[in-house]
């Protein structure tokens, strides 16, 4: 037996209690309550209309009829008045016919109102029943579910559209989760396989236990460590928990320091790294360490995948600043432009971790998350003269929660 905890209360209840309550809710659901309500309103309207109509007819027929003694007419004349008066008898007969007609008309109106209320409430509650059933099917794990959108341009249509959007979002999130697990497993498999083979070779005496072998083991351990650190940073950035130490930074010395840091990497690849600054002084408020990480990732990608010089520039933009990195390579294809910021997406599938040139596939995703944590945005495009351009736009004032 499965006991349930009552909503909003601390005690639990046995199955028969909540099953009985569910059956009671089924008997007195929204549709029946609305039907009874509309029927009651119709009955009240028919009763009041009939009552006042008969009252007006009665007053017109008997209100002014004299009775014995010269007193005014009224109810007394109806019960005790001039029964032998032919006109009075005709009035009584006419009033009886009117009363009977009003009764049957009211009964017919009541029945028609009940049927109309049942039909209307069924039309109103049918989308809600479908939504309830759809929610239960989603909870049970069914995917690919879409509800028929009502033709009426009202709140029920908007609610159904929102439900279908929710189902689509759940499918997308579930597919993303499966792909994420598969990508993480794939990225962990390569260094773990290398570690296993190296260690087994050392155990079998095939590879001597020396500095070269330990160096290879250390390199694979560092790859694993970097992947774990990247996943943690991405999780913090996307959840709003990445700590940022915001400060006002002069861009010229900051960017010169970034260029000096990555110039040896560019020189090793036989490429130049150029810095272009506006004549006026620029400053912005951001976390220097995190923005250095973003620019380092952009410069590293440019050096890795492009040919020719790499440009790092800064310009004023909408009260803030715009930093952009441009390479002179082939640029980004349509698929790459659309997916370049996705997790574990690598623009050059031929470059692998074994070759030592592949990254974790999280660099650009982390870079965008860091920039968005500053209240800015990171965009990718192709330059008209060739090559790819990554633009980092920082607002004049980061959001208040960015520095928390």
UniProtKB/TrEMBL annotation:
Q: Does the keyword Transmembrane apply?
A: yes
Q: State which Enzyme Commission number(s) the record gives.
A: 2.7.13.3
What GO CC annotations are associated with the protein? plasma membrane
The GO terms this record gives for MF are: ATP binding; phosphoprotein phosphatase activity; phosphorelay sensor kinase activity
The entry's localization annotation reads: Cell membrane
Please name the top-level EC class of this enzyme: transferase
Q: Which reaction does it catalyse?
A: ATP + protein L-histidine = ADP + protein N-phospho-L-histidine
Name the InterPro entries on file: 2C_sensor_his_kinase, HAMP_dom, HATPase_C_sf, HATPase_dom, His_kinase_dom, HisK_dim/P_dom, HisK_dim/P_sf, Sig_transdc_His_kin-like_C
What is the protein name for this chain? Signal transduction histidine-protein kinase/phosphatase MprB
Question: Which organism encodes this protein?
Answer: Calidithermus terrae
- Gene that this polypeptide is encoded by: baeS_4
């Amino acid at each position: 037996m499965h006991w349930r905890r009552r909503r909003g209360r601390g005690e639990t209840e046995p199955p028969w209690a909540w099953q009985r309550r569910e059956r009671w809710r089924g008997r007195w659901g929204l549709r029946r309550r609305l039907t009874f309500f509309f029927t009651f309103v119709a009955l009240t309207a028919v009763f009041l209309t009939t009552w006042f109509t008969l009252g007006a007819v009665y007053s017109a027929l008997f209100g002014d009829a004299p009775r014995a003694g010269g007193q005014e007419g009224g109810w007394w004349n109806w019960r005790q008045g001039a029964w032998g008066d032919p006109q009075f008898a005709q009035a009584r007969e006419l009033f009886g016919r009117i009363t009977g007609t009003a009764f049957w008309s009211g009964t017919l109106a009541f029945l028609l109102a009940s049927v109309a209320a049942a039909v209307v409430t069924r039309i109103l509650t049918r989308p809600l029943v479908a939504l309830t059933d759809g929610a239960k099917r989603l909870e049970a794990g069914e995917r690919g579910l879409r509800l028929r959108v009502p033709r009426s341009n009202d709140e029920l249509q908007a609610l159904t559209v929102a439900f279908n959007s929710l189902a689509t979002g759940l499918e997308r999130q579930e597919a993303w989760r499966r792909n994420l697990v598969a990508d993480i497993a794939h990225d962990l498999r390569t260094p773990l396989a290398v570690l296993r083979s190296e260690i087994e070779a050392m155990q079998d005496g095939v590879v001597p236990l020396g500095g070269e072998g330990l160096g290879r083991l250390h390199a694979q351990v560092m790859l694993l460590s970097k992947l774990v650190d990247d996943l943690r940073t991405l999780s913090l950035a996307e959840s709003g928990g990445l700590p940022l130490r915001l400060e006002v930074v002069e861009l010229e010395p900051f960017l010169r320091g970034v260029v000096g840091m990555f110039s040896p990497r560019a020189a090793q690849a036989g490429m130049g790294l150029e810095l272009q600054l506006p004549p006026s002084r620029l400053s912005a408020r951001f976390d220097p360490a995190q923005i250095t990480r973003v620019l380092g990732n952009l410069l590293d990608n440019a050096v890795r995948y492009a040919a020719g010089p790499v440009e790092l520039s800064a310009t004023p933009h909408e009260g803030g600043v715009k930093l952009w990195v441009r390479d002179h390579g082939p640029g980004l294809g349509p698929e790459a432009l659309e997916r370049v910021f996705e997790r574990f997406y690598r623009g050059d599938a031929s470059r692998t971790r074994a070759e030592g040139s592949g990254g974790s596939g999280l660099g650009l995703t982390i870079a965008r998350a860091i920039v968005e944590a500053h209240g800015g945005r990171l965009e990718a495009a192709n330059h008209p003269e060739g090559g790819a351009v990554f633009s980092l736009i920082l607002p004049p004032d980061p959001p208040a929660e960015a520095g928390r």
